[in-house]
Amino acid sequence: MTLAASPAPARRIALLNVKYSPNLGDGLLSECLEAELARTFQGIAPGTQVFSIDLAGRRAYPAIAPSRRAALIGLLEALPGTFRRLTTRIALTALVRLRLRRHVRARLAGCDAVVLGGGNLLTDADLNFPMKIAGALAQAARLRLPVAVYGVGANRQWSDAGQRLFGRALGAAKLAYAAVRDARSQAAWRDLLVPQGVRPAALSGDPGLLASCHFPRPPLPFDAPLAGLCITAPMALRYHATGPGHASAADARAALDAWYAAAARALVEAGFRVALFTNGSPEDRDYLAAMGPAWILAAKGPVTMTNPFADPAEMIRFIAGCQLIVAHRMHACIAAHSFAIPTIGLRWDVKLDSFFALAGRGAFIADTASLDGPALTALARQAVAEGVDRAALEALIAGTRSDIARMAAALARAMEPAKSAAKAAA
Fold first, then answer.
1. How far is the C-alpha of 343 from the C-alpha of 356, rounded, in Å?
2. Dihedral sign, CA of 325, 326, 332, 335?
3. Residue 136 backbone class (left: φ over 0; alpha: ψ -120 to 50; beta: rest)
4. What tens digit of pLDDT does each residue of 318-333 get?
5. What CATH code is carried by the domain that includes residue 42?
6. Cα dihedral: 168, 172, 174, 179 (round 10)
7. What tens digit of pLDDT does each residue of 259-294 get?
8. Are 309 and 204 found together in one domain?
9. Measured in whole angstroms, how far is the alpha carbon of residue 128 from the centre of its chain?
10. Do 52 and 34 touch, CB atoms closer than 8 A?
11. 129 and 224 share one domain
12. Is pTM, for the whole model, over 0.85?
């Protein structure tokens, strides 16, 4: 008589990310990766728990309330470069030592594996992510837990200190799998990390592409089609953009103020009702609150402002009810694309160009400086008329699910010998 093999024991897998960032795009991709990895592990170790550890120590989506974030970014922008870097390094060192290490150590108790997953994490704005990721991965290394990297973005604008922190942290990790979300990120990983002894990274789909798999689509409206115009503050575009800037802050603000007014009017001219919304970042919300009424008056048509979203599910319900999305924010575009909603990307960071190229929508990304009202009206009509290539979209979604399955298989293989080692180290 042959006995049936016992099922593999349930596992606990922690994702390191910024799930609870005010920018709900980060929460969206984190929730998609959690759900898909848990689904995949049901065939490997039923009952496996997948959860996120926020790299800023947050435990829930922030309340919709006034924030000091915009004021802090403005203060950092005003500081001389050397003093800004020194100030942020002191603050980050305190955060990592006094709060983050304890937070990660407590949350990793009883875990079997760690995934550094989703989002533009391998970037260096004043050593923010290099220090946080190094601190968190040090705790995983202490417990000898296998680590995977999945679907992250990476750029090349790293300081020498940031490059050393990333290289040492990933080099010391028990790295079972590594994949980044686009070819530019893969080249940056190859050139900046592989020479430090880190294994090469494969390519993977962004978890946000699975939004339509894990969030329901609401009924479509019966009246005029709805276009969502995603508002991003000029401050955020200046602080996080990877390209060089030339215009003064005042000139850039005035140009963007005028462009959004013209864009709302252009979308009305294209036959849409227009809803102004944000991904949730406080500086974006403040900008919309300050300028939205004037843009509505200038549009002379059916334009409204959405209420702030409390969590990614609320944001998805809105996006999935639109027939067009126009946005700088990448995950507003990715979520819309997952639901086969046409998108127009507003160029500001190479990560957006990379996604539009991957999605085969290179004709629908443009710089606001070259996209005046009549051009946006024409492009919006073209986007809706052409729609989204469903076969290509289904291939992207299926490929992303396969990418996550490959990572899960690599983690499962690494977990068995790691389990006894972690017990010995605890």
1. 9
2. positive
3. alpha
4. 999 999 999 999 999 9
5. 3.40.50.360
6. 10
7. 999 999 999 999 999 999 999 999 999 999 999 999
8. no
9. 16
10. yes
11. no
12. yes
